[in-house]
Amino acid sequence: MSWLIEVDGQTCIGSGICAGTAPDDFELVDGVSHAKRTEVEQSEVVVDAAESCPVEAILVKDADNGEIVAPEA
After folding, report:
1. What is the CB neighbour count within 10 angstroms for residue 51?
2. Residue 7 pLDDT level (bands cut at 50, 70, 90)
3. Which of 5, 12, 29, 64 gets the highest tally of CB atoms within 10 A of its CB?
4. What's the total number of domains in the chain?
5. What mean pLDDT, rounded, does the chain reach?
6. Residue at 37 is within a domain
7. Pairwise CA distance, residues 51 & 57, whole Å
C-alpha cells in the first residue's frame, strides 16, 4: 500500500522541518518545500514530517482510497 504526498506551495513558509525530518521524501526549492515523489511507500517519517509542518502545508493520503493519513484533524 502506498501514500500520496501533496505540498501546498501557497501555504508553505519554507521552515525546512519536513526536509530535515524526511530528507528522502522532501526538499526545499527556492524556499518552498516539494515532495521528491508524489507517491511513496508508507513511512512513519512522512507522517512525522506532515505533523511537524507549522502551517499544515503537507497532506498525506492513502493512494487506494484517498483517506487522509496526516495531518490528523
Report:
1. 15
2. very high
3. 5
4. 1
5. 96
6. yes
7. 10
Task: For residue 73, tell me if it sits in a domain.
Answer: no
In CATH, what number is assigned to the domain containing residue 50?
3.30.70.20
Chain-centre distance of CA 15, in angstroms? Answer: 13
Task: Write out the residue range of the structural domain in which residue 15 sits.
Answer: 2-66
pTM of the model: 0.93
Residue-wise pLDDT for 28-54, tens only, equals 999 999 999 999 999 999 999 999 999
pLDDT at res. 59: 98
Q: How far apart are CA 64 and CA 22, in angstroms?
A: 22
Q: What is the largest CA-CA distance in the chain?
A: 32
58-62/68-70 β-pairing: antiparallel
**Beta carbons of 49 and 36 less than 8 angstroms apart:** no
| CA distance readout (Å), 46 to 24, 31 | 9, 19
- Could you tell me the three cell numbers for 29? 526549492
